[in-house]
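DM from R.C. (forwarded with permission)

"hey, sorry to bug you on a friday — could you get me a structure for this? deadline for the figure draft is monday and I only need the backbone to look sensible"
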Amino acid sequence: MSQPLNVVIVGGGTAGWMAAAALSAALAPEHRRVRLIESAEIGTVGVGEATLPHLRMFNRRIGIDERDLMAKTQATFKLGIEFVDWARIGDSYIHPFGAFGSRMAGVPFHQYWLRQNKHGQAAPLEAYSLPIVAARHGKFVLPADDPASLLSSFGYAFQFDASLYAAYLRDFAERRGVKRTEGKVVDVQLRGTDGWIESIKLADGSVIAGDLFIDCSGFRGLLIEQTLHTGYEEWTHWLPCDRAVAVPSRNAGPLTPYTRATAREAGWQWRIPLQHRTGNGYVYSSNFISDDAAAQRLLSRLDGEALGTPRFLSFVAGRRRKTWNKNCVAVGLAGGFLEPLESTSIYLIQIAITTLIDYLAATASFDSRIVDAYNRWIDMEYDRVRDFLILHYHANQREDSPLWNHCRTMELPDTLAHRLELFRHRGRVLTYKDGLFLEASWLAVYFGQRVMPVGYDSLADAMDATELDRRIRTMREQIEQTVARMPTHEQFLSTYCPANHEAACT
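My reply, with the result:
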């Protein structure tokens, strides 16, 4: 590379500082100049606090120490997400970061479970998932590296303060040469020859030029939409929630190693326990409840005392028609929004950044084939997450409110309808070569929301009934014994990453 790539990031928050940190770590100093523009006058959303296990790979890739990060972001561990009242009121299931059982004779475990269940001989499916049993008992330990160990059968994520994570990444990036500029963008200059972004102008009159512009300006999409008019594909006909109200509360009871999503009359409520407080929010459809009523019901359902005034957020589910347009890449809310039901917001930021770094050529002249390939990849990620989220809403048996009646009877994307048909026939889970949610994730939601196949794979009948019963019983007993030996989640936190609660609350 003859000249360093001049990267300008517009907007801070989690998206902006993740981009800055990753670029500063991945590209040698002589190959890049990274500058981030943000204004204290423009607030950040900052309600997302739960993550997926993939973030651990991002942190490791750029050189972040996990224990230090967790202590400084008030983090707790997350083994999965509990879904309450989704199929029917009174139901509860956990989507774990780990497998259900293990393959036997090349046949997926859930096919044997369906065989046993048909004859009334199976325990609940969650009894065969170590992370679910550990979560139910409030236990945690780090996974083992030995693939022969039962403790290698799960992963984990973090529940942390997103604003503290952004601050942590800012310090990380600035120590690696990223330059931060306080300022508000008031104008964008395009090149006359091709319409690419040439520079941005700040309120103080300064002009900042760049080769690559990363739009982290949030929902308004200052560069990707307001300037380049890229277009937006709206998905509210499948994901009807368009509002959220959030408020923190004091911790009440033990810190659970999982996030909770409870279905409500017009949407769902999240609960995310951190070391210093609990994050709460109500995601809802404005067609079925007012803002005032949503806030009132959220406040009435908190575990502990509210620590602030409810904050509101409006959004439209969907994604940009192009994530990378000309020399601008949209990251975070500027690129699209899928509600935080499965904690995918930070993952979608991560995949946009890491894929960009992988696709960047060693020149400031971007090949259209690279741009097209990047956009196809990001579109695929969004589309597959979208289908997984729709499944939660559609697969319900509730008749207590208009929202759930609407979701149960709505027309599905063809891609999801096909998956459901295959599973309902013989329990087959259509898997992708690439993508976020794998077989265990789909199984958790299918079975958790009472989507039961009419049959099972006949290959599961090949095993002798007595031998199958012995293996399944042994599997369950080993999980119970392993969990019994684990420390509690709070015990593990106290030695692994204790945080300074007083400093976080001042």
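R.C.: lifesaver. The chain has a mean pLDDT of 93.
me: no worries. The first helix runs from residue 13 to 26.
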